[in-house]
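Holo prediction. Input below; ligand is zinc ion.
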Amino acid sequence: MQNAERVQIQREHEALEKQRASLLWKEREMIDMEAQEWVAAMELQRELTIQAAMRSDRRRNTSTKCVDISLGSCSDVPYSQTIFPNLLDQKSREVIEYSPEYILMGVLHNLLQGECNPDLRLLGCSVVAPKCEGGKVIKPCRHRCEALKKNCFPAFDAIDMAWPYFLDCDRFFGSDIEGCFDPLAKLRGETDFPEDVLTELSTSIQFIHHSYSQMVRELKKTASRCGHIAQLYSIGRSFEGKDLLVIEFSTSPGSHELFKPEFKYIGNMHGNEVVGKELLIYLAQYLCSEYLLGNPRIQRLINNTRIHLFPSMNPDGYELAAEEGAGYNGWINGRQTAQNLDLNRNFPDLTAEAYRLAKIRGARTDHLPIPESYWWGKVAPETKAVMKWLKSIPFVLSASLHGGDLVVSYPYDYSRHPLEEKMFSPTPDEKVMPNCTVT
Ligand SMILES: [Zn+2]
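Structure of the complex:
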C-alpha cells in the first residue's frame, strides 16, 4: 500500500472516531434529558396527587349531606345514612358497586367457605359506606377491625390470601377518642356470647367429605390456629404430584425431643376407604380446639407425646373414588394408587424375614434389613415417602386406619406356617398389642 493511501485511511478513521464520540455524547445528553423529564413528570404527578387528596379532604370536611344507604350488600348495617365520597374516595353508589373492593366483599364469603361471615362483610360496609351523622363521616373502630383480623387470620392463611388492603385497620379505621362506631354492634347484640366463645363457634367441626384441596385448607387452618403446638409438613408427593401432608402436634413442632414418644396415625391408604381420613382431619381440629380450651387430657397428651396425623396416604385414589361416588358399583375403584398399586401390599414383607431369621441361632429379629429382592418390584412414591419418614422419626406406636369392617390387625399379621393360615403366631410384643387395640 502507498504511503499517501495509508495516511488517507488513517485520517478517515480518525474522522469516523470523532463522529462516533460526538454521537455518543449526544446520546448521553438525551438520556440525561429524558431522566430529568421523567423526574419532573414524577414530581408533577406527586403534586397533583397531593392536591387531589387535599381537595377530597376539603370536600369531605365541608360536605354536609348524609344520604340513605342504597348498597345491596350493606342493607343490614346498624345505621341508615352514609356519605360520599366514602373512605376509599369513591364518589357515588355506581362507582362503589363496580369497584373491585365491593365485588371482593361479595365473594369473600365463598372464598373463605363461610368463615368470618357476616362480620367481614359488615366491616367492609363500614369502609365503603361509612356511617354519617350530622353531615360528618364517622369512622369505624380500629379495635374492632384488629380483633376481627386476628380471628380471621387462619381462614385467610388457609387460602393463601392476604388481608384486603381496604380493610387496613390503621388507614381506614379510627380510635375511640375520635368517636368511632362499632360496625359489628348489631351482631354482638343478637347473641349473648362473649367474644372468645364466638371465635370457638366459628371454627366448629363439620362432618363432610373433604376433597384433597379442602383437606389441605382445613389442615393449614388448624396448623395456623394452633401455631404454637402444631405444624403441617409434607413427607413427599403422590404419583400424580399431590403433597403427602402430615399435621403434627407437639410442644416442640418440627423436632424430636429426647425420651418423648413419637406416635402416628395414617389414614386412607386405600383411597376408597375414607372414614379414617375424615376421622384424622376431625381429630386434628379436635386436638387443636381442646388444647386451646384447656382440656387437661388433651393438654397432657400433647405436652408428653409428639403426635403425627397423616390423613391421606393415597390422595390420588381418593379423588378417583370420590368422583365416582358411593352409589357406583365399582366398589374397589380408587383403592389402588394412580399407578395401580395397592399400598397395603407394597411394603417389604419383614414378617417373613423375621421368621426366617428366627430359625438362625443368635440372629436378631429387630432392626431388620430390607431384603434386596424387594427393590426389584415396583415401589410406589407414596410407599417410599412413608419409608423415608419412618427412618427420620423414631416412632414407637402407630396405626393405619382402613374402612369396611371392624377388624384390628397387628404384628405378626401372617401365619408362621405358609400352609396353616389360622395358626397363632404371636409377636414378641403380644402382651402389649391387645391392650393397644382396645384404647
Ligand atoms: Zn384398607
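The domain at 67-202 is CATH 1.10.2000.10 (Frizzled cysteine-rich domain). That is the main takeaway for now.
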